[in-house]
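Lecture notes, structural biology module. Today: joint structure prediction for complexes of two components.
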Amino acid sequence: MENRHKILILDDDSDWLALCRELLEALPSRPEVFTANNAKRALALLETEKVRLLISDLKMPRIDGLQMLSIVRRRFPELRTVVLSGLEDEEYRSRAYALGVDLFWLKPEMQRNSKLFTECLESLLGHADRDADAGFRGIQSKSLMDIIQMECLSRTSTALRITRGPLVAKLWIHEGELIDAECEGARGEVAFQRLLAWKTGTFENLPAEPNRERTINKPVNALLLESAQTLDEAAQPSTEPESLESALHRKTMWKLAQLTREGAEFVVAAPMGTADDPEALGTQNVAALAQWAQRATEIARRLSDRLEAGPLSHIAGQGVERQVVMLARTNRAFLVGWPAESTENLPEKSRKLVASWES
Amino acid sequence: MGILKRIFAGSHAAVQQLPAGTVTVDRQGNIVTSTVSAAYPGNLLHSLGRDVLELFREARTAQMPLSEVSLHFGSLRITARELRGGAIIFLFPQTALFSTPTPARP
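The predicted structure, tokenised, for the full assembly:
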């Protein structure tokens, strides 16, 4: 009995808490279930009980779910988190995943498919007698090829959304057959090949779209084989090694092309915590801009800690001459300059630019 | 009840609420006006004002003058506009309960 996992459910609706408790207590692993109807009480329980999994609602009075998740992420990094919300807005899903939750489920979806939901929870809980990191997260160690093969072998219909930083790709599988793919602006087989070159990422199963137009007619195994061959050939060392200057030049030209294609004025990559030189394209004012990016990152991190505001997403600045977006990464801060008249979603465009710059 | 008291006793579970409202600061970072709840710690608002002014000042030093800066955190958005003698700072909690209006540009 000592090895039973502990689950904490946080929701302001007492009827819902009772329903969830009943459902979770019937799990095969027989977890110990705690409930809390506000964030303060939930935090008190987390301090006193060794809880393995937190299931939280989003819309609650005073401290709501997103703020709660941001707090537990910092205070209890080992805690696995699931959001169970009635808010169907896709923005909340993205924000919850950005805060590092393991799973996001909508309440109506959970009621319709409670068996799948409980299976997901069992996977997240893992086995009590194994190490703390066992379980669902291990699926990320599988390659994308493995995941696609598993989906196709199970003959299911689903849409897979694969995310790698700001880049999002989708695959549509109908009764075990791959019917369509979208990735980096491409569609069909080309998109599928591009997607398979991704080394890391996360994926989500979305509801199937049986009426999706078919753009892929080759069997999935043939496509996987072709991709594996292409990737193997690309991984073979060249017989004539490229000179360092030539490789650097090619990389710079490629980055410049990305910058021009997106319409940005400049990118400055400022190192954080190291004495490395900043890297930049499109500006002569490298040192001063890098210094601002470093200073702004420090100020933002300080504010995040003091105000308990959660992790920094980005800083946007508006001037007469230009707009800027600053994205802080672990080792570098990126400052991207855009024309003052740009009206598009600049943070998103900056993220894509930085992701391709870093890759 | 004894068990409950033991569980919920102590100061470990203190949670700070996110600030919401508008703050105006002068060029030294002193608060001139504020619509943020009086229960919110004043020293945090004061340091926020100083940090925001520093962002504008450093941007000018970098020859990149900015009239508006927005810091987007997981749970809070801080939008600051530079005024002639200081700055006006809008605080929008990014939570399910609060709407997140974008102030119209002048």
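Point to remember: The radius of gyration of chain A is 23 Å.
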